[in-house]
Design a protein that fits this description.
36% of the residues lie in helices and 28% in strands. The chain is α+β, with helices and mostly antiparallel strands. It starts with a strand and ends in a 5-residue tail after the last strand. The radius of gyration is 13 Å and the shape is globular. Strands 2-3-4-5-1-6 form a six-stranded mixed sheet, with helices on both faces.
Length: 124
């Protein structure tokens, strides 16, 4: 399963000390059906632990997800920073999911080449 993060999400993850291993673990949980919240339209919310802490008090990530195929980390926030997404934000993520999850190999390669997405590195 190919897993990516957007350029904006990569900046968030670096600032908060969220490594690729934590992102990969979140996708593995989703692949096993352990989704924290299915927001519909290919959008899920997965918790990611803070460094030295647990997932419950950590970060929430918005992932564009197609089981067994693709995952894109597109947004993250601290649980202490906000409760949830606004309706218009969710609609935007669903539209984004339509576009990102429809990318073929050429589209993915192009997006990677221009730096729009970065592949999550895992030691699987």
């Amino acid at each position: 399963m190919q897993t990516f993060k957007t350029k904006a999400f990569a900046r968030f993850a670096a600032r908060e000390g969220i490594g690729d291993a934590a992102l990969y673990e979140a996708v593995l949980r989703a692949r096993r059906g352990l989704v924290d919240a299915d927001l519909g339209g290919g959008v899920i919310k997965q918790r990611v632990a803070r460094k030295g802490g647990g997932r419950s008090g950590g970060f929430r990530t918005i992932v564009l997800f197609r089981q067994g195929e693709l995952a894109f980390f597109v947004y993250g926030f601290a649980k202490s920073g906000r409760e949830n997404l606004r309706r218009n934000e969710l609609e935007t993520f669903r539209l984004l999911a339509d576009e990102y999850l429809a990318l073929d190999r050429t589209g993915l390669s192009t997006a990677k080449a221009v730096g729009a997405i970065i592949e999550v590195q895992c030691d699987d």
